[in-house]
Amino acid sequence: MNGLIGLGGTLAILLLLGGAIGLADRRRFNPGWLAIAALLVALNDALLTRAYGLMPDVIGGEWNWQGKLLALGATLVIAALPAFGWRRTGLTLAQVAGSIRAALPIAALYCAFFVALAFAFPGDKASVEHAAFQLTMPGLEEESFYRGLLLFALDRAFTGRTRVLGVAWGWGAVLSCVMFGLAHAFGYSHGAFAFDPVTMALTALPAFLAVWLRLRTGSLLLPVLLHNFGNAFSLLI
Hints:
Structural class: mainly alpha
């Protein structure tokens, strides 16, 4: 029940923020796509939690392999639909011509951020399963969803763009980062909603860097690789 209430709070934030932004610029707002984005967040959350514990864990292990694989599978299937498209959601190895050179400083900044975190907050010695999970699942599932599928839907909901640092930003990019931060920093337990601003900042900041990389290169390749590096680096030192 706590998970469902937490999801309800997250969806309320998305719809209220999105609705307010849309009302401020109605000509470039498609509420249908905002509703689709909310449904995608709900489906992703349900699969990650194995329907909030109702589905048996047939894979096992200490880490949420099954939830991540279910959510990733759903993202790939939905992205293959004609309304989305793998390439349009960034699920391609092809990079925009000349984008890799431009992306290198941002990629270096992303790595430096997580290297600094690793030394500031060193982790315990990791098991083989822990290291394997962090080197694969977070980047593959979270980037495909937040910087791929969800970003695409939100970009269709808010079509206005402002060019900053060589990339055309829209409210969709901002809201996808907010949703990513809330997934880590916001929830419901012990009869109350809880929000951790430090966690929000530590997840939303690299999310903006990852969005820049996704928009500049046209691909999720670098965001996935860097995300897994960021998650696993502290385990390897």
